[in-house]
Design brief:
single chain, 188 residues, 73% helix
Length: 188
């Protein structure tokens, strides 16, 4: 299957191009299904989550552009995972819709997803600004990698040094996010 650039997908979603949407479904939905089924969901849950995320992208793209520093696949998977966690935690399975029809229980889902996506953009943009070492440390930490493994993988002298490094990297990232003009406007 041919891989496309981010803009191909974003333009296709924005315009409702059926060929691009078919490519998105055939290329990414199977992976989303595997992830959600592995997390205790069903194929129908995955399809509902996938539709909510694509709808959110559509709504957001009508208002503004989406800047991605990662590829579309990673962006979509992250959005779907977060939407699934949100719905799973709230135990609101009735919001997840049947395969061929998506019914939203109000505009809150799209608005929440759009707000989340804006927050994710702020995080992602500022994550790219921290040092490469901090990016590695935080990526491993977010994957719940034990400090002992991080220590060995990145060559730190002790688990204590790893904990200090995680703290400093988080602080650097938080400081950058708080300085971002979009942070105060959207979140504060």
């Amino acid at each position: 299957m041919q891989k496309y650039e981010n803009q191909y997908y974003l333009d296709g979603i924005k315009s409702g191009n059926s060929k691009v949407l078919e490519n998105i479904y055939s290329e990414f939905l199977p992976q989303i299904k595997r992830i959600i089924i592995k997390d205790g969901g069903t194929a129908e849950d995955a399809e509902g989550i996938f539709n909510i995320c694509l709808t959110s992208f559509f709504v957001r793209l009508q208002k503004t552009s989406i800047n991605m520093s990662s590829n579309f696949q990673a962006y979509l998977i992250t959005a779907c995972r977060n939407q699934w966690k949100k719905q799973f935690q709230k135990n609101t399975r009735e919001r997840v819709i049947k395969t061929d029809y998506m019914e939203l229980k109000g505009k809150e889902d799209i608005a929440d997803m759009s707000l989340w996506q804006e927050r994710w953009d702020i995080y992602e943009d500022n994550f790219q600004k921290i040092s490469e070492n901090c990016q590695k440390v935080l990526a491993l930490h977010l994957k719940k990698t034990p400090a002992k493994v991080i220590m060995k993988e990145l060559g730190y002298s002790s688990e204590n040094v790893v904990a200090q490094r995680i703290f400093k990297c988080k602080k650097s990232l938080i400081d950058l996010i708080k300085k971002d003009q979009r942070y105060g406007f959207r979140i504060g």
